[in-house]
Hints:
The chain has helices spanning 48-56, 62-86, 120-124, 134-138, 148-154, 187-195, 206-210, 215-222, 237-248, 255-273, 291-300, 311-330, 338-341; strands spanning 5-13, 20-30, 33-44, 94-105, 110-114, 128-130, 160-164, 167-174, 177-185, 279-284, 304-307, 351-353. 39% of the residues lie in helices and 25% in strands. The mean pLDDT is 96. The two termini are 14 Å apart. The longest helix is centred in the first third of the chain and has 25 residues, at 62-86. It contains 13 helices and twelve strands. The chain is of the alpha/beta class. Strands 1, 2, 3, 4, 5, 6 and 12 form a seven-stranded mixed β-sheet that branches.
Amino acid sequence: xxxxxxxxxxxxxxxxxxxxxxxxxxxxxxxxxxxxxxxxxxxxxxxxxxxxxxxxxxxxxxxxxxxxxxxxxxxxxxxxxxxxxxxxxxxxxxxxxxxxxxxxxxxxxxxxxxxxxxxxxxxxxxxxxxxxxxxxxxxxxxxxxxxxxxxxxxxxxxxxxxxxxxxxxxxxxxxxxxxxxxxxxxxxxxxxxxxxxxxxxxxxxxxxxxxxxxxxxxxxxxxxxxxxxxxxxxxxxxxxxxxxxxxxxxxxxxxxxxxxxxxxxxxxxxxxxxxxxxxxxxxxxxxxxxxxxxxxxxxxxxxxxxxxxxxxxxxxxxxxxxxxxxxxxxxxxxxxxxxxxxxxxxxxxxxxxx
Length: 354
C-alpha cells in the first residue's frame, strides 16, 4: 500500500486523561517528504466513571484488566465511529490509534495499552493500525517515546521538539541519530493537585503562580534517581503514584505551593535535559497553555527560543504523529528508532486489523 496521499484518522489518549483526541489528517508525499493538513478534530472527554477506572487501573488484577480492555475497546471504537459519522468522513485509508496506556514497566518487559483488541476494526468498519509499543518492548526497548520519528519527519526545522502532556518528553538530532526520552511528569501531577480543588486543571497556571517554591521539596524532587539515568529511558504513571505524589505529600504545603514547586521542578528538569541551552524549542501538548510553566522554562533557558504552534498542532500533535506512524506501518517502513527506545534494531511496529 504505497500511495502519494493518505486520508487518516489519528487517535490518542494521553496519561493526563484530558480525553480521546481524534484528528482527520491528509498526508501527502512530496519529494521524499511528508506534508500534512489537519482537517476535522475533536477531543472527547471521559465520563467521571471512566476517569476513575483509568486512574485506578494500574492496581487492577489481570482479570479485571482484561475486562477493562474489552470495555475500553468498545468505548474507543464507538467514539471513533461517531467521529466518522458526525463529520461524514469518506474514503478513509486507516484509523491509526494509540489506545490508552495502563501499565508501562519496560524493565520488566511489560507495557499495556488498552483499546487495541482486534474487534475494534469491526466496530469502526475501517482498517485499524494500533498497539505500537509491545513489539519494541519485546525487542528490548523502552516502548517509548514513539513520537520522535514523527518529529524528525514532520518538524525537522526545530532544534528540539518537546511535548508537555502527562509527562514531558524531548526529541532532537545528534550526529544524524534521533535521540529522545521522557524528562519528567507534568500534567499527571499538576492535574492531580488541581483535582483536589475540584478543578480539572490549573488554567494557565494561575494557581501555581500564586504559590511559593519550597526549596527542600524542590531539592528532593531534583535528586530522584530517574533524573540521573542516561537515555533511553521512559516513565509510566507508576512513577507518579509510587514516588512523586508520596514525596510531595510528605510536606504540609498549600496546593498553591505544591503546584508552584512542581512547576519549578519541571522547568529545571527540562533545562537539564537540553544538551545545548540555545536554539529553537518547539512545544506542544496541554502544558503549552500553562503560561506560568512556559515563563518558568524560559527563565531557566534564557538563550533558547520557545515556539508554540497553532492550537490544532498543540492539542493534536500526538494524534497527528500516530497517523504518520500508522502509514509507515502500512508501508512496512521503520516507524520506531532503536536510538530512541534502546531496542535491538529499528523496526516497523503496530498491528493491522481489517
